[in-house]
Every structure is written in C-alpha cells, then in structure tokens.
Amino acid sequence: MTGVLTGFAVVGVAIITGYIIGRIDLLGETGGHVLGRLSFFVLNPFLMFIVLSDADVEMLFSSLLPASAAAAVAVFVVYILIAKLAWRRPWGDTVMGALASGQVNGNNVGIPISTYLLGNAAYSAPIILMQQIALTPITLAVLDALTSGESKWWKAIVRVFRNPLVLGSLGGLIVALAGWEIPPLVHEPLQLVANAAVPIILISFGMSLHGQRVLTTRGTRRDALVATALKLVVMPVAAYLLGRFAFGLEGHALYVVVVLAALPTAQNVFNYAQRYGVGYVLTRDAVFLTTVGCVPVLFAAALLLGT
C-alpha cells in the first residue's frame, strides 16, 4: 500500500506545483501553452526513446501486451458507440473522449506504480509500447486529418511518421530489438532531457487547473463522467475477464494487467488536446477525475489480487 501512496505523492506534488505557478501567474498567459509544446515536440520523444530502448524485449512482448490491448480496445469501442450514436458528438471530441477512456498513464503514474506496487518498473513497458508504437500514430493521423482538413488519409499517415514523438518511440524500439547498448556518453545526456518530461507535463496540467472547476463547463460534463467510469471501472474489469478467460493469465500476471488497466488517463491525452485544440475541457476533467479516483481502485486491486 505504501507503494501506491508513494507513486501518487510523486504525481501530486508536481500537479500542485503547477497549480501554484498558475495561481501566481509566474509564467504568464502563454506559459501553459509553451510547456505543452515543449513536452510534445521535445521532452516526450526523448522520454519514449529512453524508456523503450532500456526495456527488456521479453517483457515488451509478453502476454501482458495482448491482454492490455484488448481491454483498451473494448473501452474505446464502448465510448465511440455512446458518443456517436447516442450523443452525436463530432469526431474530434469522440476521439479525445475515447482516448480519455482507455489510454492509461503508463509513464508518469505507471512507472512509479509499477516500481512501488508491482516491484518492477518494466511492467509498464508493454503498455507504453502499445500506446506509442500502435495507438499514437493512429491517433495523431486522425487528429491531423480532422484539424488540418486533410482529405487524403495517407498524407496524414506520412505526417505522423515525421512526428518527433513517434520517431522517438520507434527509435527506442529499434535499439531494444537490436540489443544495442547505448554508450554512457550518449545515454546520459538523453536521460537528462528525458527526466524533464514527466514533471513538465504534470506542471503544465496543474497550471491548467487554476481558474477552472472540474465538471463546470456545460456540454462536457456527461462526456467526462462516462470516460471516467469507463477508465476506472469498466477497463479494470475488462482486463480481469479478458486476462483470465481469454489469455489464461493468473496470479501475479493477472494482477499486473488489472493494475495497469486501473491507471488514470494519460497526461499525453491532455497534451494532444492542447496541441490540436480539440477536447481540451473533456480531457482535462477526465485526467483530473481518474488521477484522483484511481487511488481506491488500485487499493482494491492490491487487496483482491495482490500476491
């Protein structure tokens, strides 16, 4: 249990720091936007390269990967059906709501939780791989097409593979698969820049909370609440059922899959909303609600499944 509290203390201090910075207007009106662009184009690519290049290949492609992917796809589909068929939401808002429902915080929260609760930071690597190598290119291609008005889907795909975030992830995966060891002379400077990604993203998110009250913006409350329920309740349950009955997981492996599914919505989703100007309030509210709400869910998972 101490591991859960430690992981969330790390995240909470950074978010509170960002809120204070926003409250005293330390960085001005454009501070949050600048930090968001810095994270998206520079810091996150370095982080993804370091995390994936240092990961164990067997862990990356373990049975945790398909089970986690199946749970994510299940909640994506549920949210999209609700948003499009019942609410008639635009595609941009629908995509961001689906991401808020199923893209987990494998880095900022996942790494400390994997370290302190599961006993190994590498447990978060498969889900980071899935999200950065498969989900991120698809997501960015769709958002590029929706926000740029690009009618030719293949041009959006080409633009995605010029995106620094995708390039960093692919580079890290190639290094891991090839078994290359990055010399300290290169690795340490890259690690230094990568280490800045998590606190800067969390501080940027904390700044966005100043002057805003969660679930007060009309037209997005229902979306945020449904995304939160899917993330905190439906996804962990789906991970348990799929992991146990579809993929034959049990014991510690099943526990790991459920804990990963119970992680809060990724701050990267909010970062995408900042970058593309869609679903900003929805993702901000969902990130906040799931970050707070996942604490009891993780405690429950540890009590019921912890080995």
Description:
It contains 15 helices and no strands. The model has no long low-confidence stretch (mean pLDDT 87). Helices cover 78% and strands 0% of the residues. By secondary structure, the protein is mainly alpha-helical. It has one domain: Na+/H+ antiporter like fold, CATH 1.20.1530.20.
- Assigned CATH class: Mainly Alpha
Work out the number of β strands: 0
Distance between the termini: 13 Å
- What fraction of residues sit in β-strands? under 5%
In short:
By secondary structure, the protein is mainly α. The protein has 15 helices and no strands.
Using brief descriptors, characterize the structure shown.
307 residues; mainly alpha; Na+/H+ antiporter like fold; 0% strand; globular
Write the layout of secondary structure elements.
Elements: H1 2-23, H2 31-54, H3 57-60, H4 64-86, H5 91-102, H6 110-118, H7 125-148, H8 153-160, H9 164-178, H10 184-194, H11 197-209, H12 221-246, H13 251-261, H14 267-276, H15 280-305
Helix pairs in contact: 1-6, 1-11, 2-9, 2-10, 2-11, 2-14, 4-5, 4-12, 4-13, 5-12, 5-15, 7-8, 7-9, 12-13, 12-15, 13-15, 14-15
